[in-house]
Amino acid sequence: MLTYMTKRLQVLLDDDDYAALQHSAAARGVTVAEWVRQALVAARRREASGDIDRKLEAIRAAVRHTGPTGPIERMTADVERGYAAGGDSGSPGY
Fold first, then answer.
1. Per-residue pLDDT tens over the stretch 42-59
2. What is the sign of the dihedral through the CA atoms of 77, 81, 84 and 90?
3. Is 6 domain-assigned?
4. Is 69 a domain residue?
5. Is 92 within the bounds of a domain?
6. Which domain holds residue 40?
7. Residue 39, domain member (yes or no)
8. CB 57 within 8 A of CB 48
9. Distance (Å, whole) CA 63 – CA 68
10. Is the overall model pTM greater than 0.85, yes or no?
11. Residue 63: CA atoms inside 13 Å, Cβ hemisphere, count?
12. d(C-alpha 23, C-alpha 29), whole Å
């Protein structure tokens, strides 16, 4: 895959860390620069998927709770009656 680089990034590493990167890159058959690019892309994907995992956990937690249920028309009517009554009339007692 041919890509055109438009920005340069300089990262300073000590000799041991750079040697470890060289070893990892060589094991994959890529340059250190390509290894770093791939690592950055993977890190961005993990960061993005973390958001998805957090959202899914929130949904799972929400569905474990119970609350008033019923036909949407009845629930909407109950809410509207509460607004018309001028405030929080509490639970409709389902």
1. 988 877 766 788 888 889
2. negative
3. no
4. no
5. no
6. 32-64
7. yes
8. no
9. 13
10. no
11. 5
12. 10
Please state the domain count of the chain.
1
Q: Name the one residue in this structure whose structure tokens are 């809410």.
A: 79
How far, in Å, CA of 39 to CA of 29, rounded? 14
26: tokens are 């060589």
Whole-number pLDDT of residue 54: 83
What secondary structure does DSSP assign to 31-91, as a single string? -HHHHHHHHHHHHHHHHHHHHHHHHHHHHHHHHTS------HHHHHHHHHHHHHTTS----
The whole-angstrom separation of Cα 62 and Cα 59 is 5
Residue 44 exposed, middle or buried by CB count within 10 Å (0-12, 13-18, 19+): exposed
